[in-house]
Design brief:
The structure is a homodimer. Chain A is of the alpha/beta class. Chain A folds into 2 domains: 145 residues, P-loop containing nucleotide triphosphate hydrolases (Rossmann fold); 59 residues, 2-Layer Sandwich (Guanylate Kinase phosphate binding domain). Helices cover 38% and strands 19% of the residues of chain A. In chain A, the strands form 2 sheets. A 5-stranded parallel sheet of chain A has the order 2-7-1-8-9, with helices on both faces. In chain A, strands 4-3-6-5 form a 4-stranded mixed sheet. In chain A, a hairpin with a 2-residue loop joins strand 5 and strand 6. In chain A, helix 1 crosses helix 7 and helix 5 packs antiparallel against helix 6. The first copy, chain A, is globular, with a radius of gyration of 18 Å. The two termini of chain A are 27 Å apart. In chain A, 33% of the residues are buried. Chains A and B meet through strand 8, strand 9 and helix 7 of A and strand 8, strand 9 and helix 7 of B. Chains A, B: It is an enzyme of class 2 (transferase). Chains A, B: This is Guanylate kinase. Chains A, B: Essential for recycling GMP and indirectly, cGMP. Chains A, B: Its EC number is 2.7.4.8.
């Protein structure tokens, strides 16, 4: 039996996966991940580094890795980040050590990221499992964005206008999961099935970062 | 949105799949399928044509399509069979109409077949989903074969000797599922997950037969 075959054939555990969950703003990426945590999925959720100040109630290393702007720039220079972005002077990025540690521990890694970020990850780690979380319709997405009241109506429309471009990135993804309103567990179940199936591949994906 | 993208993106049902479940003799293919039926999986199970006489308790069109040897040879000549084999003068084969009808109805088709037969299906329908059901060990397989008491000890050893060749066919398969003794539902759940995941592919498989 060749060594690249699935290790489950030799009674060994399957290789850990890097699972990228992406999709338009407001589609419910956070809700899906929160529900997966609630259900006790044995995954490592990637904690993003952030240069903005810690807010009351937020836990360093859980919600974000809170770092200073100086430290963040150092991380960029040292190539410590898998992906990063600056929005209005605030830095956000994914530390590579987060993913390396998690994968070395044998656990699957789940990474939630916007569609642009997913494209970057695709270039860096094409063998990751790319899941596009899609809304059932634009109307449903508008409703959800308005409901969360963190964006102005103009900003909501701006985000909706981006969806067509985001859908155009679907070819970068392996799977598409529709997150219907009030059917969160269906989407979560579908993601669970995808992860299960990926672990049963005859030839597992090989992640190197 | 391109038409070849998953129809779920347009609120339509996913395309039906052709799922081939194969594996060594005695690995538990029948048990897995029986359990899937019990659980009410909404699949079309392919009924094989068979030239041997109907036994008491067997239902024509359910257990097998019972046909005469003459009719079977006619089916071969008319290219009505996806795959067939003759063993000791007894014909067995898969009628194409079974699969066409089932797929036209929008249901997934599940086809249980030995590893040689799966290789034939792979040539005819490479876009089918190929699942290899594997034993946890040769000892477990030997135990199962002896337990069912339909083969002599010599025949059991002959079948075990075939397993290495069968495992060598793994590259023809997409997925491998271990059917551990007393953990049938785990294998069934894994197959369910695979089918679910396949329905979420951004680019669905396109079966033509």
């Amino acid at each position: 039996m060749e060594p690249f075959l699935n290790p489950i054939l030799q009674g060994k555990p399957p290789q850990p996966l890097l699972v990228v969950i992406s999709g338009p703003s407001g589609v419910g990426k956070d809700s899906v991940l929160m529900r997966m945590r609630e259900l006790g999925f044995p995954f490592h959720f990637v904690v993003t580094a952030n240069s903005r100040p810690q807010r009351p109630g937020e836990i360093d290393g859980v919600d974000y890795h809170f770092v200073t702007t100086e430290r963040f720039r150092e991380m960029i220079e040292n190539d410590e980040l898998l992906e990063w972005a600056e929005v209005y002077g605030q830095y956000k990025g994914i530390p590579k050590f987060e993913i390396r540690q998690a994968m070395a521990s044998g656990r699957d890694v789940i990474l939630r990221i916007n569609v642009d970020g997913a494209a970057t990850i695709k270039r860096l780690a094409p063998e990751a499992v790319f899941i596009f979380l899609a809304p059932a319709s634009l109307d449903e997405l508008r409703h959800r964005l308005l409901l969360r009241r963190t964006e102005s109506p103009a900003e909501v429309e701006r985000r909706l206008a981006m969806v067509a471009d985001e859908l155009a990135q679907l070819p970068n993804f392996d799977y598409v999961v529709i997150n219907h309103a009030d059917r969160l567990d269906e989407a979560v179940g579908q993601i669970r099935a995808i992860i299960s199936a990926e672990k049963a591949r005859v030839y597992p994906r090989r992640i190197s970062l």
